[in-house]
Design brief:
62% of the residues lie in helices and 11% in strands. The protein is mainly alpha-helical. A hairpin with a 2-residue loop joins β2 (80-85) and β3 (88-93).
């Protein structure tokens, strides 16, 4: 009976790992395109205020509908979040999602020793450096 429980536990852990892996693949695929990477980096630089889609389009010199499509890909990968402010939709980088992605990528660092991995992630910006701006 304990063998069956162990198999169930391993199976459920694998499923959880699969969903993290799948989410990570979606995020990496979304960033594996020059314009989307540029948009994400720009939004990171604009934390915590974010930018409207039109401002992003002007900044990168792309049509607004193209930028909207790229923002949709980034949003589906949970790398950006959108919120309505009066008539504008403001997009912000989801730094928590990026931190989760980085944690996943370096989770086996130093042969899985948690102290090493945590130290590596602690340097990830959470946007609080500009809260007073």
């Amino acid at each position: 009976m304990s063998t069956l429980r162990a198999q169930i536990t391993v199976h459920s852990q694998a499923r959880t790992g699969d969903s993290v892996e799948t989410g990570s693949l979606h995020a990496l695929a979304a960033l594996a395109q020059r314009t989307r990477l540029a948009i994400f980096r720009m939004l990171v630089a604009q934390e915590p205020h974010g930018m409207a889609a039109g401002s992003i389009a002007l900044a990168i010199g792309a049509p607004q509908n193209t930028v909207s499509a790229h923002l949709g890909v980034l949003a589906r990968a949970e790398l950006v979040v959108a919120s309505r402010h009066s008539r504008n939709i403001i997009y912000r980088a989801n730094l928590g999602r990026m931190q989760t992605l980085i944690e996943y990528l370096i989770s086996n660092c130093c042969e899985g020793q948690q102290a090493c991995a945590i130290t590596g992630v602690s340097a990830v910006c959470d946007g609080s450096c500009k809260q007073g701006s």
